[in-house]
Write a structure and sequence with these properties.
The chain is α/β, with parallel strands linked by helices and about 425 residues long. The chain has three domains: about 80 residues, Arc Repressor Mutant, subunit A (Orthogonal Bundle), CATH 1.10.10.10; about 130 residues, Nucleotidyltransferase, domain 5 (2-Layer Sandwich); about 170 residues, Nucleotidyltransferase, domain 5 (2-Layer Sandwich), CATH 3.30.420.40. It contains 14 helices and 15 strands. A five-stranded mixed sheet has the order 5-4-3-6-10, with helices on both faces. It has a five-stranded mixed sheet with strand order 13-12-11-14-15, sandwiched between helices. Helix 6 crosses helix 14 and helix 8 packs antiparallel against helix 10.
Length: about 425
Amino acid sequence: MSLTSRSALRKSDLREANERLLLSIIRQDLGTSRADIVRITGFSPSSVTFIVNRMIRDGLLSETPSEGQARVGRRPLILRLQPKALMAVGVEIARSETRVAIAGLDGKIINQRTVSWQPDQHVFLARVREAIRALVGNVPSNRLLGVGVSVSGTIDHATGRVVAAEHLGWFEVDIGPILSAGIPASFYIENDAKLRALAELWFCEPGSRPLENFVFLALRHGLGTGVVIEGRLFHGAFGEAVEFGHTSLYPDGRRCVCGGVGCWEEYASQEALERLYAERRGAASHAPEQSAEAILRLARNGDPIALDVLRETATYVGMGFANLNATFNPEAIVVSDYLASGWDLMKDWVWGTLRSRAAHRYLSRLRIIPSRHRGDSALKGALALVLSHFFAATTSSNGNGSTPATASSRRSS
């Protein structure tokens, strides 16, 4: 490569980085003007004008008068993303229901499809691939940012291989090549709990300060945790960090699907709650098994067994929270699934256990809050994974620990 071509490449990278920086600022504040960008970035007004005009010409931005009456002169012009200028696809793989969605730059879902579970991995993944293909069929390849995939278990980010997803029965499954065959886009594959944390980080209210140090607790499929430290997902050296569901509460406890004993997952997950309720009711009742949501409804109606089971499960949740708090000192623990739905019933018991195991000075600033995205958090996280790669102006590193499973066609400049 000649010196001239290397210089041109660096110039192209710099231009792309500046574009994405401005787009990130506009995405986070819906009332941003050119003058605001000058103030925030320190770029010269002429540089901002050049970059903004180019992005308006490319269809990425529009510029419209602000709402309301100006105090003096004309109303300022506000820059806004054109959401449908570029598209992202999110996939949430789950045994209950797999969802495939397409969204614009704002992350709002435009269309989605569902795929029913199939025990045969290849048949199932082929159907997911066809659902993706159906959604992107009319999207030009240079407008498709990529496909984010949420799946439980341990992921090899470099290859898109599921190393182990016990709750799906998948071990060493190369889902990246199967899903991406014939689709000209990058595929980003990540653990579902981490992506649910990313959704909380990425899709906060415009203009509000996102949480920067928090733990997300996913309870739908086992017990997963996603940890954000200083505004970045934490993965560890090999992408397998923060598997707190498989830390041990009891040395002689229940055997876990991971092969361990006494794992937190076996006492605080949705499956653990449902199993405990069935055990307390007794096999002689011959009543159908109750889901976590049904147990919550029974508790609200005063069912003593349901209330007792929630109280015991809340104790196990609080024990795990004490470990999370001692390890990460988070500003918040974000809860989801049955714990979010039943937080009003369980919060006093959880906090009671937590306070019995940690000094007040360690808990005085901790918040425990339900997820803002509830049942959509994994799907929103898969979309956020793609969007974060686009908005974060990076080259070899993407900042989220996930690398594309396939090469992509990048937007032409």
